[in-house]
Amino acid sequence: MWWHREHILSILLGFVQILIVSAVVPFITDNSSERLSLEEGSWVGTETSREVQWAETAFRHVMSLDCKNVFFTTAKECEALQTIPKSSFIVHVAPFTGSSEYIVMLPDEKLTRKDTHQGVVVLDPYPSANFGHLVVVFYVDNKRREKCLNKNGIYIDSSSDCLTFALKRRCKNAIKRNTKRKHWARRCEINFLPVVNLKHRKRSSVSDKRYNYLKCWKDLKGYGNCPDLRPEIDAKDLICNPIRDNTKRCSTTHEMVHTNCKIFEICDQAVLISGGWNRETSGVRFKHNLAAFYRMLRQYNFKKSNIKIFYANGASGLNIPGEHAHQVHPAAMKLALRYHIQTLCRSPHCVNSLVIYMNSPSKNDGSSLLWDVDKDGLASNSEVYTVKEFKEDLSHCTANYVHVVVDQSFAGQLADSFRNSPNHRNVIVFAGSKDNEYAYDDEYTRHWVTSNHTQDCTWHIHQQSKNNLKHSSPEAQEGEKGEVRTTIFGAPCNVIPPFTHRELRRDYLGCQPLPTAVWIKKLLASAKGIDFMKTSWSG
Ligand SMILES: *[C@@H]1O[C@H](CO)[C@@H](O)[C@H](O)[C@H]1NC(C)=O
Ligand SMILES: *[C@@H]1O[C@H](CO)[C@@H](O)[C@H](O)[C@H]1NC(C)=O
């Protein structure tokens, strides 16, 4: 069968990549990068003491900093960092290359410009928080002691390696000038796991150039555990619907999402978005969150076909106990994602309660990172879903109610942008953290999926989360009218006496027939636009 062939092919391609990567090694005087297993972050054979020294030196340095005089974050954050036990940190490392070869990328800028480095160490003090969150990045270069100390580096005598702090561009000056600007330090922080590539060589192939050498270091004594990642092969290329796309590779416009809007009925619908960005930042827990949110919606009779899931580079399906695997679209297909939301919002009498769940890595302006399609580590327009775009897609939405649940860092940024918006009167945004806070440990998602939504307003469910979250402060914001006080499936809440299950089923859960007069009107209106007819009658 064809997908069998494709599977074998992709495994072969995987081998080819490993071969290409190992072929680089002869250029390198030390073979650390070969000995750090390319896929899984453990050392093959004996562990080198060199990189252990880097990690120890970096950690000691951070712990002994004078926080009043730092440039990578605020004094307050720096002091908080120094209270975190070593066992809570995790370490990522790009091992010693021997020659200056590494370039380092963040989603919003190239961290290295003309300079390249021989090693990179990243200390992650908040491994249970979503990205973005603060990480401390050091470059490593083999050089003379005086040269190192001149650059404010930290010198390691045993190896003559020099560690220097990686800082974002213009931040040192910005910190001196703008100390009163709101959240300026958040903008200066490196709050994303960088991508570390080898500098382009004439002879190297693209896949070689785009290999990310930075790996979470498993089983490093004294430090915390690395997150569970998806198998390398699953997180490599875009995965499209195998049945429809046949053997063709998918392009960003290829995958179309079938939007259900029927003439005779109005339904509750949901869109679940989990971008992931790349393998290192999209551990398996994000898939679990999607499955949990999906199951919760199914409990309140959202129809399977009315829950659309957009996930990272895609997946062959999402496993749900007791159901067939649910179809998953790649979040990388931003146009398809946006078009689906727009269609739901522009088709009259299509949606009663529209629920949007967001669980992506995010930038400090609130935008969601989808997937690094070209693997260059930089976030281009087609790889980011901005707050502005999201607001456009939801403006004057024809759904009766729009509930947005955001479990990602800086979620308050997104919520705040909807406050009193005249174009979003029926939209309410629930954020698991404030505009300058991180989202930790999936706790906001867990609150939503374990709550009983039968009678409670979403507003009330959110209020209850304030007592439940250990790490961050949830906030809710809504459009001008401030009128969304319904359950997640769009029923009036806290009715006395409560609706019976039968009443809920008849009047609110899942789909409801439209009154004849309404659908005739809808039919007549749609007869004017053939396109609309097509989307309306199909499905
Ligand atoms: C390189 O790795 C091999 C094992 O794969 C080892 O025998 C050799 O000593 C290593 N060389 C250096 C310089 O570490
Ligand atoms: C939710 O609450 C309703 C009563 O308000 C109850 O009938 C129902 O069993 C509860 N559901 C769950 C899953 O606990």
Keywords:
6-stranded antiparallel sheet, disordered C terminus, signal, Rossmann fold, 8-stranded mixed sheet, 18 helices, 19 strands, 539 residues, alpha/beta, binds 2-acetamido-2-deoxy-beta-D-glucopyranose
Structure description:
- With 539 residues, the chain is α/β, with parallel strands linked by helices.
- The chain has two domains: 15-216, no CATH class; 248-259 and 266-496, Rossmann fold (3-Layer(aba) Sandwich).
- The chain is 30% helix and 16% strand.
- The strands form four sheets. Strands 10, 11, 12, 13, 16, 17, 18 and 19 form an eight-stranded mixed beta sheet that branches. The protein has a six-stranded antiparallel beta sheet with strand order 6-7-5-4-1-9.
- A hairpin with a 4-residue loop joins strand 6 (154-156) and strand 7 (161-165).
- The longest helix is centred in the first third of the chain and has 23 residues, at 2-24.
- Mean pLDDT is 85; it is low at 12-29 and 530-539.
- The structure holds 2-acetamido-2-deoxy-beta-D-glucopyranose (NAG) (2 copies).
- Residues 452, 454-455 line the site of one 2-acetamido-2-deoxy-beta-D-glucopyranose (NAG).
- Residues 30-31, 35, 45 line the site of one 2-acetamido-2-deoxy-beta-D-glucopyranose.
- Keywords: Signal.
- Residues 1-23 form the signal peptide.
By secondary-structure content and strand pairing, the structural class works out as: alpha/beta
The tally of beta strands, per DSSP, is: 19
Dominant shape: elongated
Q: Rg to the nearest angstrom?
A: 25 Å
How many helices does DSSP assign?
18
Helix percentage: 25-40%
CATH architecture of the largest domain: 3-Layer(aba) Sandwich
- Unique ligands: 2-acetamido-2-deoxy-beta-D-glucopyranose
Largest sheet: 8 strands, mixed
